[in-house]
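Below is how a single chain appears once it has passed through the pipeline. First comes the sequence as given, then the structure the pipeline wrote out for it. We keep one example in the README because the format questions we get most often are answered faster by looking than by reading.
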Amino acid sequence: MSRAPDRVGVSRAPDRVGVSRVSGREDAGRVSGRKGVSRAPDRVGVSRVSGREGVPRCLWPGRCPPGQAGAMIRTAVPADVPVIHRMIRDLAEYEKALHEARATPGQLHDALFGDRPAAYAHIAETDTGEVAGFALWFLNFSTWRGVHGIYLEDLYVRPELRGGGHGKALLAELARICVERGYERLEWSVLNWNRPSIDFYESLGARPQDEWTVYRLTDAALTKLGSV
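Resulting structure:
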């Protein structure tokens, strides 16, 4: 995402590993290489300002009040599932892979808000409360660092709302969570052809892990190996 981060629209995690669903769309960030989703983070998603789930906080101190105008980030709540699902499909369509986006709203709800959440999400809002984008992520674990990290599966900002800082604000919130909880890595994947997104990420200090290649087993190949 080269341009202002918010055109950060999409980052999807490596399901298409490599596609940062941050990936193809300058604001997408799909992260890849999920090495191990570990236990749920403490108070995942609690808004720092309010301490209450789902309550937005301003990411740009000094610019938001009065009225909290500016980029607002809050943790997702169950009522956000339909709009998150719609944005995931928008991202898949942009990447010409809508047929691969098979997750249902019910699956998303269970993954985000079930008894044992597998993933977490943050929502970016405009100053009028309109949903501008989202970040969906989960915990991984580094055997070298000995601590958790965050793997960003999807990062997406709606096209008509890009350029307002929402993508950068979402990434900043995840970076804040990492620092606050002692996580040492924030990772995601990006499509190789998505130069604007790559430029944007590098402007934030992110660096490509060129020495690694992601492999995946799925569908028939996964079933075959699992049946040995």
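The chain has one domain: 5-226.

See the next section for the split statistics.
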